[in-house]
Amino acid sequence: MKKLSIFILFCIFFLTGCTQEKKNENLLEKIKLRDKIIVGIKSDSKPFGYINNNEISGFDADIAKNIAQGIFASDFKGHIEFVPLKAQERIIALNAGRVDMIIATLSINERRKEIIDFSIPYFIAGQALMVPYTSRIKSIEQLNNKPVAVVLGTTGERTVRLLAPNVISIGATSYKDAFDLLKNGSVEAILADDSLLYGIMSDNKGYKILPQRYTKEFYAIGLRQGEENASLKRQLNAIIKDLQETGKLNRIKEKWIPSIKISMTPAAV
Description:
Helix content is 39%, strand content 20%. It has ten helices and 15 strands. α3 packs across α9 (230-245).
């Protein structure tokens, strides 16, 4: 009986130690040993993340490439694995450990900060309405009792309810699906980040973005919470600050979104 008790205590000690070791695992060191970062990204959100010649391209893809170069002090090739995710899958995939980080037009907000961590921002967008060019809609208030498309899992869901309580909100699983709803007349407008709406308009004529911006969206890299991610967060923040200070961030912006001006205000998150 004494031997059995000692064996049980040993098992508890061993399992507790393994759990603690796993919990305290340094993600940055793990990434370096693996020799690549696993990045959750969108593949349906031109110009931030989309498929081009069977590869993920866009603003967020270029941010990821610069992150890989900063971590491994070498070319990004071979050091990134992209995992395409829909908007509503991003945080679930991150906290489930499927990806190391999310670089996918992820806006910082208080609700998300309760369950994940963020880097400092790398882009500022604003939510806007896109309508057919011939539409008489001039403001979100005119959309009460009318159907409006929003992408599920985005901050647009909350914004449209706050500003037009009686709007008929139609959830779409992707920006393509939202645009299809507008194109076939199922909705009167799309509410989404202006940066993504410009991407839709770059491939489609006959639409316009109304001038008013209803929010200010700070895009940042999403990380899991916990001390094991602290060193990775510090490295990401240092890389983003370097991109800002050297002007490389604005060059990436001009490459993908020449019609939008970035006015970055450094913020500690």
